[in-house]
Amino acid sequence: MSDVNAPDDLLADYVLGTLSAVDRARVDEALRQSPALVESLRELEDAMRLVGVGLEAPKRPWAKVEQSLSGGRRFEHLVPKLAELFDVDEAAAHALVESIDGGDGWGEGPGPGITMLPVAAGPRCEGFITVLLRVEPGAQLGLHRHADRERVLVLEGGYRDDPSGAEFWRGELDVREAGSSHSFTALEGVPCICASVAKLGEDG
Q1: Could you tell me if 48 and 145 lie in one domain?
Q2: Is residue 99 part of a domain?
Q3: Which range is least confidently modeled, 35-49, 64-78, 79-93?
Q4: CB count, 10 Å around CB of 130?
Q5: E strand or H helix at 92, and its extent?
Q6: Strand locations in 103-157, DSSP E?
Q7: Which is nearest to 160 in space by CA: 180, 183, 133?
Q8: Domain that holds residue 94
Q9: Alpha-carbon distances of 121 from 98, 100, 125, 129, 172, rounded to whole Å
Q10: 105 plus 182 within the same structural domain
Q11: Residues 83 and 160 in one domain
Q12: 1 within a domain of the structure (yes/no)
């Protein structure tokens, strides 16, 4: 974290639970020393509770939360995981998440309600299919077999694995070993956006 970021600028991410351990410790220390910061934190938490029950939140504290939830910033805490998955630097991962909401590069995916964005990954991903997938709620990625280990990082929304019924949500990494097979269905709510590094079998 850059020293130019004051603890009060980190409160929205603190409430959302998206800070690194180092940044969270910094905010914790600042909260112990500043009653004003504690009051700002309470305002943010109250605003989030109001939104959670469908009421309008106070505009001032909610503005920072909205900023953290908008555009590519909503994926900020997942950038290191995304960089590791695709074997790219964090600058490239930042550029990738900023492109998610645009239409450029997205094309037809492997089934109805699924679109796909190819990703230029690093050398450790050579020979693998590296893509972002956007799966509309209720859409299914059909049964497929893995010729090598598959890794899927959920960036937004979630999906249910078939046939196990296990669910994977935002920030979770689903790892499938070579020779395994499955399908999955995007859960209700927002579209499921996930990053995938996979090598499909001949029948997949």
Answers
A1: no
A2: yes
A3: 64-78
A4: 20
A5: helix 90-99
A6: 107-108, 114-118, 129-135, 140-145, 150-156
A7: 183
A8: 76-198
A9: 16, 16, 6, 9, 20
A10: yes
A11: yes
A12: no
pLDDT category of residue 49 using cuts at 50, 70 and 90? low
Tokens of 2: 């850059």
Nearest CA-CA partner of 130 in 119, 141, 146: 119
Record the pTM: 0.67
**Residues 53, 35: Cα–Cα separation, whole Å:** 27
Q: Which residue, 34, 69, 104, sits at the end of a domain?
A: 69
HEC per residue, 19-72: CCHHHHHHHHHHHHHCHHHHHHHHHHHHHHHHHHCCCCCCHHHHHHHHHHHCHH
Q: How far apart are CA 86 and CA 195, in angstroms?
A: 9
Contact between 81 and 173 (Cβ < 8 Å): yes
Residue 76: φ, ψ to 5°: -55, -45
Letter string b/e over residues 77-108, b meaning 16 or more CB atoms within 10 A of that residue's CB? bbbebbbbbbbbeeebbbebbebbeeeeebee
Q: With 50 as the cut, is the pLDDT of residue 81 above it?
A: yes
Q: Considering its fold, how many domains does the chain have in total?
A: 2
Q: Give the CB-side neighbour count of residue 22, counting CA atoms within 13 A.
A: 4
Tally of CA atoms within 13 A in the half-sphere of 24 that contains its CB: 10
